[in-house]
Fold:
Amino acid sequence: MTLVILSPCIDVKDGACTEVCPVDCIYEGERMFYIHPDECIECGVCETICPVDAIRWDDEIPPGEEPFLGINSNPFQDENGNVRACGGWSRENDPLKDPEAVRNYSPAVQRTPQKL
Structure:
């Protein structure tokens, strides 16, 4: 199984997942984070800490979020579609370029803040 980051991460980028990842396989993109599919050891710690429930196992992806299986690995692919090794994320690295689907992503339903 693979862990995948889904749309709730877009424009939130809390980053708690990067703090607990023991192998630094979660990389920052421009609008969201991405889990490197080959570097992840599938410990699941990131899934438990995500405040917006954006990290799921690939067999637990809710309807409508299926495109994020490919979107999650896209930033790590070279021009031939092969996944390249990145060597671990660091805050000093520039964010990865988001795939077009994330750059153009607009939520289907606009959320309005609740009044207290």
